[in-house]
Amino acid sequence: MKIVLVTWLSTGNYGTGLQSYALHKKLQEMGYDVCILPFFALSDFTLTAKIKKVVRYYPKYYAKLFLKRLFFENKSQRKLREFNNSNYNIRLIKTQAQYEELLKESDVFIAGSDQIWNCYHSFNPFYFLSFAGDKKRIAYASSIGTSDFPEEKKDQIKYLLSKFSHIGVREETAVKAVKDLICEVDVRQVADPTFLLDDKHWRNFACKATLEFDLPEKYILCYFVSNESYTIEQLETIKQKLGISNVIVIPAKENEKISIPETFIYPDAGPHEFVYILSHATCVCTDSFHATTISINMQKDFIEFKRFKDENRQSQNSRIYDLLEHYNLTARLYDSQEASLYNPINYTEITDIVERDRKDCIAYLQNSITG
Prior knowledge:
11 strands, alpha/beta, single chain, 12 helices, 371 residues
C-alpha cells in the first residue's frame, strides 16, 4: 500500500524533526510504501500563478538559498538538511499532472503529528487533507496544541474532519474538542509518534551523532523553547539541589539567543546530536513537549518548566499536563512543590505503560490503514 504522510518537516525545531521521522520510519517498518508531502496549493497550478512565481519568486528564492548555503549555513542547519535528505522519501507536487498522479497512485493519506491543527497559530486546510479527493483519510497524533478550536473556524474544520475515517489525536483534551465538532468519526487519543520507536531505536539513532566536544561525566541538559526571565534563577536552584555544576544548553530555533551564565552553549546540534546529548544527561531541564517525550522513552530524569501562563487562552500547557498525567509524572513540574522533584524517577511502571501504549498505537495505525 502507498501511504502519503502530511506533517511538518523540521526547519530547525528538534521536536518537529523527531516526530515526523518517527512516524515516517514506523510506517516503513510496518511494510508500507511511504512518502512525506510538503505543502502545496492547488491554486499554484494555474498558468498565471506559475508565471508570477517564475518572475517574482524563484530567482530571489534560489539566489537566497545558494547564498545561505554558501556563506550563512551553520553546522546545525547543515546537519538538519542532511538529515532530512537521508531519512525521508519526500514527494514534491508542482504541477496539476503530478497532483493527479499522486491521487491515482496513493491508497491512504495520513495527517501526522505535531501542532498541525493548532488553528490559533495558523489554520491551513492542507494539513486537514483538504486536497485528498475521495481517498481514505486518517489522522495519527495530530495536535491542536490548545484546548479547543477558534470559534470562527469551527464550521470549516467540522466539514474537513467529517471526511476522515479515523482520527487519532495526541492529547486527551483534543479528543473532546474534536468530538464536540463531530461525533460520527472514530476519535481517540494516541501517543506521540516518538513513542512508536523504542528506547533501543533511539539509542542507535543517537550513535550517529558527531560531537565537536567531550561530554562531562555529569551534566544538566537545558532545552528551552521559551525565554522566561525566571529560568536562570530556577536552574540555579536545580544545580544546587542536584549538586551538578556542568550545564549544556542547546538553543531552540525559537530561542536562538538564549544566554544563561556559567553554561556551555552548543548551537551546532543536529537531530542525532540532540538525542545523544539528552540520552547521556544526568538530568534534562526543558519546557519542550518532545524533549519530554524522548526523556520518558529513554528513562531519563527530567524537570519540566512551564512554557506559558495557564491563563493565556493560547497556552499549550495542556499537552504537557496530559502527557505528565498519563505517565504519573506530574510531580516533575518545577512549580509542583513536590519533595520528589529532585529524586531519580522510578521508571518500572512507567516503562510498562510506554510499552503498552506503543503496542496499542501500532495496532491503531494498522487497523486504521487496513480497516
